[in-house]
Amino acid sequence: MRVTSPRLAIHDHLVELADATRCRLLGALERQELTVGELATALQLPQSTVSRHLKILADEHWIASRAEGASRWYRRHPGLDADMRALWELVRTAMGSTPAMLQDAARIDAVIAARRAGTQAFFATASAEWDALRDSMFGARADVSAALALLDDALIVGDLGCGTGALSAALSPHVAHVYAVDASPAMLSAASARLAGCHNVTLSEGTLEALPLGDASLDAAVLMLVLHHVADPVRALRDVRRVLRPNGRLLIADMRPHTQERYREQMGHVWLGFDPLELTAWLHDAGFTAVRYVPLPVDPAATGPTLFSATARCAVGSRSDSTLRTQL
Ligand SMILES: C[S@@+](CC[C@H](N)C(=O)[O-])C[C@H]1O[C@@H](n2cnc3c(N)ncnc32)[C@H](O)[C@@H]1O
Questions:
Q1: 3-state secondary structure of 221
Q2: Probe ligand 1: pick from 168, 192, 201, 226, max atoms within 8 Å of CB?
Q3: Which residues of the chain form CATH 3.40.50.150?
Q4: Cα–Cα distance measured from residue 141 to residue 148, given in angstroms and rounded to the nearest whole number
Q5: Residues lining ligand 1, CB < 6 A?
Q6: Which CATH class is domain 140-326?
């Protein structure tokens, strides 16, 4: 055990910094987080020498490290105490412009440039395959799932016509609660299996025209690929407005106008897509305002009609902003 009195604490650290190699290592790790191999290259020392000195510096909390895959990354400890900082600044001032330290600095820059070149070389050849590689490594929805973290985590959201619950599962980590409603017991049963671990999702059987939710109980409602099944959209939108709080937000995602008549037979579609003028008129009729209709980017692998998103706000009082904003 170290005796700290009557000696000053600073004396304890003199021994670690009495070695020029350890000072060079600290100088390098102050500039950049590096591996043992990179330090050995930059300081032109055997890896065994570097490792031995790193251990001494780590034992005395001059440096910190973290493991990543097969590598361990070292950096100057971010929380040096006042004595250590004062001592290091003295040593750095004295040693910083010595040829050894200047050469170390130049070689560290070269090590970093080589790292960057490795990344650039990868992306120079991977650009053609990156989308497929990313999808295969992380799934096709990774970026959009992450972007949902932009949502306010206090939101209470309705996933109305939730189907098998894919959207509810994506929303659940990012909002306070999801009320998922669907008319089909079979779809709800699949949703229930998918959402078993999501404790902030409530599933209910019901229709858009008579939602099993209280007045003004939602901050936001989503109708994802469901409105084209609804015989009387204005009636359904009125009930959606009822369950939204004043100024609450509505998101409709559905198909743009298309000509696939066979979907009526095959999947029970009532509407062959929606154009912005018709949809906006319905939304105003149902008490929504500030409508925005945006065609969505086309997925080259998708075989169905192209999609749009339409957002609107629950009008407060009787005033409705009849402006339609579209991006066509
Ligand atoms: C094409 S699926 C889309 C499901 C889900 N929103 C999605 O994006 O995967 C349409 C869903 O709407 C439901 N649905 C159709 N008409 C409905 C209505 N009037 N009220 C509630 N749900 C309805 C169906 O049972 C079905 O689960």
A1: strand
A2: 226
A3: 140-326
A4: 11
A5: 161-163, 166-167, 182-184, 187, 207-209, 224-226, 229-230
A6: alpha beta
Whether pTM exceeds 0.85? no
Whether 51 and 74 have beta carbons less than 8 Å apart is answered as: no
Closest residue by Cα to atom 18, ligand 1, is: 207
In order, the DSSP letters of 115-157 are HHHHHHHHHHHHTTTHHHHHHHHH-TTHHHHHHGGGS-TT-EE
Token reading at 156:
């209470």
The whole-angstrom separation of Cα 161 and Cα 146 is 23
Q: Which atom of ligand 1 is nearest to the CA of 207?
A: 20
Q: Between 3.40.440.10, 1.10.275.10, 3.40.50.620, 1.10.10.10, what CATH number should domain 9-127 receive? A: 1.10.10.10
**Ligand 1 centroid distance, CA of 67 (Å):** 47
Confidence of residue 323 (pLDDT cuts 50, 70, 90): very low
CA 242, CA 208: separation in Å to the nearest integer?
Answer: 11
Lowest mean pLDDT among 103-112, 137-146, 207-216: 103-112
Can you tell me whether residue 180 is helix, strand or coil?
strand
Tell me the pLDDT tens digit for each residue of 263-279.
Answer: 999 999 999 999 999 99
